[in-house]
Design goal:
With 433 residues, this protein is α/β, with parallel strands linked by helices. It contains 10 helices and 20 strands. The chain folds into 2 domains: 285 residues, 3-Layer(aba) Sandwich (Aminopeptidase), CATH 3.40.630.10; 126 residues, Roll (Aminopeptidase i, Domain 2), CATH 2.30.250.10. 27% of the residues lie in helices and 28% in strands. β5 and β6 form a beta hairpin. It starts with a helix and ends with a helix.
Length: 433
């Protein structure tokens, strides 16, 4: 059976994922945990002068959090944990109400690299945020989460398509509109439903960022419950581990030797090119302000950045038992054998030997295993926020991740022990060594 400490962490992770069906909910869940540990939210328009201790900034589906001990000099280097809150899914279009052949449907758009066959025949709910009309011409944002079986993308019966198993191909646009009722298109039906869920009136809603999620709860799998199965393991495993490491550093009896930072970006799955993505100046500006707020100069900021290091934590590929030839023959990570260190000499990952040494040292201090990962050179290699952060800030970076199967699926799999290993390693990384 999985050791008790890892099972406790895994249980908490599954609760975190269940409460976080959208990037906005993931940020809200993380913020709630940070506030419980004594962190306070700082807004961009606030005066940060003299701010020490734990702070965090929220922008949409992104969160930047840090812990600066009162005694820490302004030039104290950062130890950054980079993650992302978004996952590939189906997102609702601005004009959603449509119908076909007597069925009422919802118009959706594909977000990120979605294996569309994994979304077929699943009970789907709706989550995201609404932009509401506020007093004085302002707008307010409100989260909405409907964990009810409202929608379904029905698969065509095999009797009507005998080739369905030939390639598991699916037209990317024509056949993904979920059904949710019978009858002709009813203008505004979806708007009324989501507004009611958010305790708002339909005429208050000015815009939305809404998406579909599988309402099947996360859980355990295997003869000894040694695996986790859930939506959005990529990359809420890393977000949760980062929050765990940061709050542990802030509440430890001994002050950390560095300034621990959690950067949870949005839109990684579509290139990070937004004001909340890793390509944006968000992290740079927040960290720079945190230095100046503590009386630091431009020289202090430069010193803090020069001594900084970043661990970019994203999910990785475990070797697939049915497609072993798709993996590098000498690098075949398995679940429950520790996180992987990802290497790609063409800089799809930002790892080099110094990063390997630093992360391996953190693993030793945490008493946790790790595994090397290299993609099959005959196939295109994925990437993560590591190279973007390294290029944007000029900070040494190592790419790591928990190995799993079914990446980007509506329901992914990883080892039950590995998320706990990752959290312990990240805790060691941000505090010492």
């Amino acid at each position: 059976m999985t050791p008790v400490p890892h099972r406790s962490h895994a249980d908490d992770l599954l609760s975190f994922i269940r409460a976080s069906p959208s990037p906005y909910h993931a940020v809200a869940s993380a913020a709630q945990r940070l506030e419980k540990a004594g962190f306070r939210e700082l807004r961009g328009t606030d005066d940060w002068t003299g701010t020490t201790g734990g702070g965090f900034v929220v922008r949409g589906g992104a969160l930047i959090a840090w812990y600066a001990p009162e005694s820490a000099p302004a030039h104290t280097p950062f130890r950054i944990i980079g993650t992302h809150t978004d996952s590939p899914n189906l997102r609702i279009k601005p004009t959603p109400d449509t119908s076909s052949a007597g069925w009422r449907q919802i118009a959706v758009e594909i977000y990120g690299g979605v294996p569309l066959n994994t979304w077929l025949d699943r009970d789907l709910g709706i989550s995201g945020r609404l932009a509401l009309r506020g007093p004085g011409g302002r707008t307010d944002s409100r989260l909405v989460q409907i964990d009810e079986p409202l929608l379904r993308v029905p698969q065509l019966a095999i009797h009507l398509d005998r080739t369905v198993n030939d390639g598991l191909a699916l037209d990317r646009q024509r056949h993904i509109a979920p059904v949710w009722s019978l009858g002709a298109t009813e203008e505004g039906a979806l708007l009324r439903r989501v507004a009611a869920a958010a305790e708002a009136e339909p005429d208050e809603v000015l815009g939305w960022d809404l998406m579909l999620h599988d309402i099947q709860p996360p859980g355990y799998l295997g003869a000894d419950r040694e695996f986790l199965v859930s939506a959005r393991l990529d990359n809420l495993v890393s977000v949760h581990a980062g929050v765990t490491a940061l709050t542990a550093a802030a509440t430890a009896a001994e002050e950390p030797a560095y300034i621990p930072v959690l950067a949870a970006f949005d839109h990684e799955e579509v290139g990070s090119g937004s004001d909340t993505g890793a390509q944006s100046p968000l992290l740079e500006r927040v960290l720079s302000r945190s230095v100046s707020a503590r009386g630091g100069s431009q020289e202090d900021w430069s010193r803090a950045l020069a001594g900084a290091f970043c661990v970019s934590a994203d999910m990785a590929h475990a070797v697939h038992p049915n497609y072993a030839e798709r993996h590098d023959p000498d690098h075949r990570p398995l679940p429950n054998c520790g996180p992987t260190i990802k290497v790609n000499v063409n800089q799809r990952y930002a790892t080099d030997s110094t990063g390997i040494a630093l992360f391996a040292s953190a693993c030793e201090r945490a008493g946790a295993p790790w595994q090397p990962f290299v993609s099959n050179n005959a196939m295109p290699c994925g990437t993560s926020i590591g190279p973007l952060t390294a290029a944007r800030l000029g900070v040494q970076t190592v790419d790591v991740g928990v190995p799993g199967l079914s990446m980007h699926s509506a329901r992914e799999l990883c080892g039950a022990e590995d998320p706990g290993h990752l959290a312990a390693i990240l805790g060691a990384f941000v505090t010492s060594g």
